[in-house]
Amino acid sequence: MAQKHQRDVSTSPCPNPACGELVEPGDLFCGACGYDLTAVPVPDAGADHPTVTLGRAGGHGPEQGAPGARVSWPDAVPGQGAGAPVGAQRPGDLPGIDSRGVQLPPETGDFVLRSPSDGHRGTPAEPPRTGTPAQLPDPVAPGPVAPGSGVRTDAPVAPSAAPAPVAGPGVPPDGAVPGAAAPADPRMAGPAGAPAGGETLCVACRAGRVDTDGYCENCGHAQPRERDHVERDLGRVAAVSDRGLRHHRNEDAFAVSNGTAADGTPAVIAVVCDGVSSAARPDEASSAASVAAGESLLASLPGGTHPQQAMHEAILAAAEAVNSLVGDGSAVERESQRRQNAPACTFVGAVVTGGLLVVGWVGDSRAYWVPDDRTTQAVRLTEDDSWAAQMVAAGLMNEAEAYADERAHAITGWLGADAYELQPHTASFKPDRPGIALICTDGLWNYAEGADEIASAVPADASARPLHAAQVLVGHALDGGGHDNVTVAIVPFPLAPGGAGSAYTTP
Description:
Layout: E1 3-4, E2 12-13, E3 22-23, E4 140-145, E5 152-156, E6 229-233, E7 238-242, E8 252-260, E9 266-275, H1 282-300, H2 307-323, H3 331-339, E10 344-353, E11 356-362, E12 366-371, E13 379-380, H4 387-393, H5 399-404, E14 410-411, E15 415-416, E16 425-429, E17 435-440, H6 442-445, H7 451-457, H8 466-479, E18 486-493, E19 501-504
Parallel strand pairs: 1-14
Antiparallel strand pairs: 2-3, 4-5, 6-7, 7-18, 8-9, 8-19, 9-10, 10-11, 10-15, 11-16, 12-13, 12-17, 17-18
């Protein structure tokens, strides 16, 4: 997770008591723990909420139940007191009104509670109907409303072709048909098959349909996103990206490809980008940059462009792709971007071809050289565009002090429309021994700061099994805490025989 250095805005701590990370106005989620900043704070369980008496007459004076308030008790009925008998009231003794506010006439007779199909409640009881079915009147159903009365009248209807079964021997009281299957309890349902129409099943309940917002319509479980964990293995290059343990989404992206140079020699390409969490749409920025850079390198290398120049042009193409995101999206998204930083990301890339290793970068994503012979020293090939790197370069702090500071990850260079001045960095190397080029985001090197620490975490067979090596390194970051997204790409050097191909992390 990268942060822009020059932004001067008011901050506040994350509402999550276990986090305390500083968040900026307009952020929807905490960049450290993923806490939803739009959620309503949970009320304090220990807060005092006094009971208030409702229905205070007149709405004036202190509330009943409040300290010092006078309680308005009803006046006692004259002639009654302690020990006096309680007067009995018959149903007809009290006036009443119907639901329309019309005074009800006095009623006589016994009152019974009837079912809705027998008429209105509170009507005098009628004697039970007797006779054979042929002698009884036809059943009635609700008819039209009488004009001016507001009461629905009853009109005879034709008997149903399939009358409801009458309770009796062999027939349950609820009218269920003997032998019919009971309705299935959805809670007891096992895994269902794939729904029709290509819809996706929930990974939790295996019964609900996943809505377009990524949540199950049945149980509400959030579904894993496609980019939460991504792996690519092309033989000569491999990469792994993971959301980590604290973030709500993966804002890293990568592109890996097998291509050819102008003379027909193999050329392997790897690009890794890290979205700036304090900017708008960081996941889209990293994806757009990685795809644009990978396509630019695949197009320029076969045309005879020098790999280092091709890397420079690829960084410019990536920057243009990120800049174009400012005008994309809905009106709501554009308005949100005006209140936040423009989409932005960091960049690091590597090209291996013809005995040459070329790297390019902007920001604090890094490239390392790790030889197969671990008795020789591993080397970091890039210099961060960050506050910490500037302090070290100026001689104001040593590296350990600078990167221990809370401002260490404030970046001074990035791809984005609001970057002060884009300064792509490129460098070429000619290794004299076999090894690997490792490019990664700060989600990895946060847990292995120095080149020697990185080398100690790389498996000994990384050149032969680049995908396994990338998986191990991602696991190293997750075991260390996984506070950030982590992405690693491994390119063995020299290149092993293999076929051509390409892969991109498109959302």
